[in-house]
Specification:
Elements: H1 3-17, E1 31-35, H2 45-60, E2 63-67, H3 73-85, E3 90-93, H4 99-105, E4 113-117, E5 126-131, H5 134-147, E6 152-157, H6 163-172, E7 179-184, H7 191-203, E8 208-212, H8 217-227, E9 230-235, E10 246-252, H9 254-266, E11 273-277, E12 284-286, H10 295-311
Length: about 325
Amino acid sequence: MKLHHFFYSILIIVMLISGCSPSLESGTSPKIGLLLEGTIDDQGWNSKGYQGLLNIHANLNVEVAFKEDIDTEVKVEKAVTEFNEAGITLIFGHGRFFAEPFTNLGKVYEDVHFVSFNGHVEGNNVTSLHFDGYAMGFFAGMLASTMSGSEKVGIIAAFPWQSEVEGYYEGASLNPETDVTINYVEDWTNAEKAVTFFDDMIGKGVDVVYPAGDGYHVQVIEKAKEAGIFAIGYVGDQVDLGEATVLTSTVQEVDKLYEKIAEQYSKGELKEGNFVYDFQDGVISLGNFGSEVPTKVRTQLAEHIREYIQTGDLPTSPIM
């Protein structure tokens, strides 16, 4: 175990044995668990899930625990058993991977409510939360096309099912002169393959790249910085990786959604089924703009986003 993971584990153990007082509703507050397919230090998707758990503990005064590297069904089953024995009754599985095993385990642990992300689930005690990435990808594509000097932009996605891929393509293609290169890593964390795609894009003249994979986005942004081209951050606000490199970021406020779901569960209001979230729900946004994005472009893009939130209509012409 990495040293910092050890200290994080000690922190969670302290949370569980410290005897948190009841919160929100009268009676005993629930215990909440989190399963992560990766690790909490990826500066992306898993980090935000972990932050969501910490928010629950700090703001709702609820006992929490987590487990990392739960990347097989056998590990999921073992972790759920251990959580159940510890009295945990709400379990988050941080990703699409957990949808199927949670659907199956929901039939076994009927007193536990299972929550996963971006996959289809079934069952009276199973919920899936879907981030609709199309619009965020669309606005990212619009900005990429506007800021490209070569009229060649790229996206290095993890999987074809990511709706932000189509959104990015459609947003960039509002300018018919823009050429969009799309590559799929077929993995969330294969940074070596992602960097290979990046190098290929550079060879083709791409000067704005969108690494839509939380396990390699930081490495690709660093490569973009070295190459002197623009990048768009993913999942978190990553302008701090380079204000002259990162134009903006497509931000999924999953940590905020964790707190909302925990509140619903504590009040007995959490429903089973599959639910979709977008800009209108306050959990998807664009991050801060980089220093190279002109004020006029920022203003137009912000206006387009406001209109989308109000009407659901996306722009039909590029930023001028």
